[in-house]
Amino acid sequence: MKLLTAVSVLACVALAAAGKTGLEDFWTRYGGIKIMKSCLTEEGTKKWIDLLHRALTDCNPSSQGSSVPVDAVENADWDGILSEVAAKPDARTRRSIAYSAEKIRRIKDKLSQKIETFRCVMRAVKVTDANNAVSTDIVMAQYRKLNISSTLMDDIEQAVMQCHAFTDCLPLEGRKNLPVPADVIKTKAFLECEKYLRYWACLKNDLKVKVSKGAFDFKGLDGSLNYLKNDESRAAAILLAEEAVGPDNYNLYE
Questions:
Q1: Residue ranges per domain, the chain?
Q2: What pLDDT score does 6 carry?
Q3: What is the dihedral of CA 129, 131, 134, 139, to 10 degrees?
Q4: Torsion of CA 165, 170, 176, 181, to 10 degrees
Q5: For this UniProt entry, which residues form the secretion signal (predicted)?
C-alpha cells in the first residue's frame, strides 16, 4: 500500500539526480515508476510525469523572483530552536552555534524559499488547493481520469480519505519551535500515507487479476487458509507472510 503525485515527484527527482542520490536509490525510484505504469496505466503515468516536469520548471525559484517570507518561519522561536541545537552533545554542533543575525536571516530566507517552492509544486500537480490545503476532491478528480477498474478506484478513494483524516489529527498547533507551516507538514504526511496505501491497493488489484486468470495454484496449502473468504485473500496472506518471515515453498505459481 506504499498519491500518484507523490511517486511521480520522488521518481522524477531521482531520474534527474541519479548521480547524486546513488544507484540503489535510483533503481528503487525507477521501480516506483514501473509500479505506477502497471497499476495506474502507462498513459496516466506519462501525463502525471509531464505535469510534474512543468510544475518543477514553473516553480523553480529562479523563475519565481525573490522569496516571500513565510509566517511560520518568521514567527518561530528561533532562540528556542538554537538553544535545542546548542544542547546537543555533538561537539561539532556546539562549535557552530554562533549564529549572527545575518546568518539567521539567510536561513529564514532559504527555508521560506523551499517552502514556497514545495507549495507551488503541490498546487501545480493538483494535490492542494489555492490555500495550500490537501483537497480530496482535486486528488480524486485526477484519479478518475484514469482508465482503471472500479474496485481499484474504490480502494484508492478509501486510501485518500483515510490519509486526509489522519493528517487532520496531527498535533501541530502551538508548536513554536517548528519553523515549518502546518500545511506543509500535513501535505507531506498525506503523500507518504497515500503512497503506502495506494501500493497495497495496486497489489490487491494485481492479485485479483492474476487469481481470475488462474495464475495461482493453492493445492499445496492443504486447506490451511480455507478460513479466508476467497483466493485473493489467500494469495495476499501468503505474500504478506513472505514479507514478514521470508519465502515459503508453496509453489504458488503454476
A1: 4-213, 214-254
A2: 39
A3: 0
A4: -40
A5: 1-18
